[in-house]
């Protein structure tokens, strides 16, 4: 299982502590230094079954500065995926990629259902 995080993010820190507390092994990846590629994002999005908007860090400064709330609805899925691949700060974190699931953000109940 891969967990993409931004170490300065308090939600990511909470999520990593939760994983450790539950003895769940994972491969950590710094999403800003090694942001997800277009190909990875496309694969994870298709595997997730979630709306693409769930992959965007909608509360992030970059998302707001780029005024993406208004722009995304006029962009194709491919354009959105390519945009996400340009900067790890645009991606909702943490991003967890398991063998048969993908999760964005940290919601303990959802994580329990998928991982325990």
Automatic annotation (TrEMBL):
InterPro entries: Arsenate_reductase-like, Thioredoxin-like_sf, Tscrpt_reg_Spx/MgsR. Keywords: Oxidoreductase. The keyword Endoplasmic reticulum does not apply. The keyword Oxidoreductase applies. CDD domains: ArsC_like. Its EC number is 1.20.4.1. Gene3D superfamilies: Glutaredoxin (3.40.30.10). SUPFAM superfamilies: Thioredoxin-like. GO terms for molecular function: arsenate reductase (glutaredoxin) activity. It comes from the Bacteria. Belongs to the ArsC family. This is Arsenate reductase.
